[in-house]
Design brief:
The chain is an alpha+beta fold and 561 residues long. The protein contains 18 helices and 13 strands. The chain starts with 5 loop residues before the first strand and ends with a helix.
């Protein structure tokens, strides 16, 4: 097995409304080291959440097992209702080869996962697509026919014995489908109608299997049969496309819900245009579209170039501009803002910022000087403190090795160890301050159209504001400990390095003053006076102590030099 092999897992959980349940499931995924959680896409109307994560195959199937186990504990299928077809708490869990691994190897991992889930969790498991054990189980829709409500009888049929796990219907959890497949895009096209029947008419025009052929009237006409007595079908416009029409109460419109199972054969923009053509022919209009989960960058670039060519415009523009053209042309902002950095796989992987603490000095300075508002004063304050205590730690280490001071090495070593600990804490706070800022920005972007959305936005904003206050307060409480080290190094350390300890004290003072500024600027959003007074009193006490200690250290250094 290629040590650099990467697979993607896209489990669909039958819960899209209870964010606490969804978070508990995704926490299990994130608990596995080496797995990257790329996307969590809950849907209220469908009552379904699509999760996307990637990593090495062994890590991915471990994360998938933990997520399936948690969903089995938390999602009660007896109570579950939603627009999307489903048969279990974890409805379907496909593995997709991304790089360094073949489909055959991915199939083996799918069976390894299915066998473990069936054996350890006692969950009925069916294998589908490339991992199917029977031809009639390749298609997910065939396995899921009858859905949860019909599975109590279906599972007892001889030809529907599960591939793994007991042939026993679990009322609480249902059954799960696991498999291996090529990259699939779940994609919905929005219509200016509320009619499911009309949406289905468009879906039947577009999907590969089309519709049943009838004499005369395509709805009421008599079904045409072949020589074997089987109903004949009129194929749709797009190969490797599955589609149905449904009504989404949350949006107040009907959609064509599609799975594009081979984007080389039918690219996303081709499916969109097919929907648009069919809708226009039926007196309907496509108002936009919606991506569920993630898509490869190439899909958006192909779409953007196609729409530019339709306008006889040059495609020799920047990548980001081509993506923007695709977003606007496909109407991906119709129902909610479409953020390419969160929906395009390559951007998600790249846009996960390099931790500031891992950057070179030049890169960190460049990042700070860029037009982005983060990292800002809070991160710089934490970093100034880290550099200040680092200077004190340097003096301790130099003193521990000073010739003639051999009998004091433990004393200075202990101080150096303490300095390293403080420094590491402050370095970690460099990134945490930026993360706190991002929480506020994310809260500001939350929708506020309904009372529920307003309440959720308010709650998120309150939480983010407290984090933005308590993070610099932690910077202050951590940095103040540096002065003991710095004062000890001025008084007892290598006298040749006294100025280094003095510079360290100046840095720590800047750190504390800067962190306090960040606390004060975020206090405007706090209504709780008790909380505000508690934080401000604590911060002011630290500030006063800092000024006193910094002055004492600087005066001592001046006397030595």
């Amino acid at each position: 097995m290629n040590p650099n092999a990467i697979i993607e897992c896209v489990p669909n959980f039958s819960e899209g409304r209870n964010l606490n349940i969804i978070r508990q499931i995704t926490d299990q995924i994130e608990s596995v080291e080496g797995v990257s959680l790329l996307d969590v896409d809950p849907g209220k109307a469908t009552n379904r959440t699509v999760v996307t994560f990637v990593g090495h195959p062994e890590q991915v199937i471990e994360a998938a097992f933990l997520a399936i186990s948690k969903a089995m504990d938390l999602i009660d299928m007896r109570q579950q209702k939603g627009e999307h077809p489903r048969m279990g708490a974890t409805d379907v869990c496909p593995l997709i080869p991304i790089s360094g691994i073949s489909m055959e190897e991915t199939v083996a991992y799918a069976h390894k996962l299915g066998e473990r889930v069936g054996k350890e969790l006692g969950l009925p498991i069916y294998m589908y697509e490339e991992a199917a054990t029977k031809y009639d189980r390749k298609n997910l829709a065939v396995i899921r026919a009858g859905e949860y409500e019909g599975f109590a009888e279906k599972i007892n049929l001889p030809n529907w014995k599960p591939d793994y796990g007991p042939a026993e219907f679990l009322a609480f959890s249902g059954a799960t489908v696991i498999g291996a497949r090529d990259f699939l895009i779940a994609y919905n096209v929005n219509l200016n109608t509320t009619s499911v029947r009309r949406a289905n008419s468009v879906a039947f025009d577009v999907r590969e299997k089309g519709r049943i052929k009838r004499e005369g009237n395509p709805i009421t006409g008599e079904i045409v049969h072949d020589e074997n007595g089987e109903p004949m079908r009129e194929p749709g416009m797009c190969k490797s496309v599955k589609a149905i029409g449904w009504y989404i109460e949350e949006y107040g419109l009907a959609q064509i819900s599609m799975n594009l199972t081979d984007i080389k054969e039918t690219p996303l923009h081709v499916a969109f245009e097919a929907c648009r053509t069919s809708a226009n022919n039926r007196g309907l209009r496509v108002t936009g579209s919606e991506l569920v989960g993630l898509m490869p960058l190439k899909v958006m670039l192909d779409a953007g170039k196609y729409f530019l060519q339709q306008q006889n415009r040059s495609t020799g523009i920047s990548e980001r501009e081509i993506v923007r053209i695709a977003i606007n042309s496909l109407g991906l902002n119709d129902l909610s803002p479409f953020d390419p950095d969160k929906k395009i796989i390559e951007y998600v992987m790249v846009s996960k910022p390099t931790p500031l603490a891992e950057m070179t000095l030049r890169a960190f300075a460049n990042e700070t000087a860029s037009e982005s508002p983060a990292p800002g004063g809070g991160s710089i304050s934490a970093y100034a403190g880290a550099m200040g205590v680092a200077l004190g730690t340097m003096v301790a280490n130099l003193s521990a090795h000073k010739r003639g001071w051999d009998d004091q090495w433990e004393y200075f070593s202990d101080w150096a160890a303490k300095g390293q600990d403080i420094k590491d804490q402050l370095v970690s706070l460099v990134d945490r301050d930026t993360e706190a800022f991002n929480l506020i920005m994310d809260a500001l972007k939350m929708p506020k159209n309904t009372d529920e959305e307003k309440s959720q936005r308010k709650e998120a904003m309150a939480h983010a504001t407290r984090v933005a206050i308590e993070t610099p307060l932690e910077v202050m409480t951590t940095a103040i400990e540096s002065y003991d080290l710095l004062l000890a190094m001025v008084e007892k350390g290598n006298p040749n390095s006294a100025s280094d300890a003095g510079v360290g004290a100046l840095c720590v003072k800047a750190c504390i003053e800067g962190a306090f500024m960040n606390i004060k600027i975020n206090m405007g959003g706090i209504k709780d006076e008790d909380y505000k007074n508690k934080i401000m009193n604590q911060a002011e006490s630290i500030q006063n102590r800092s000024m006193e200690l910094e002055r004492k250290i600087v005066q001592r250094v001046e006397s030595l030099i």
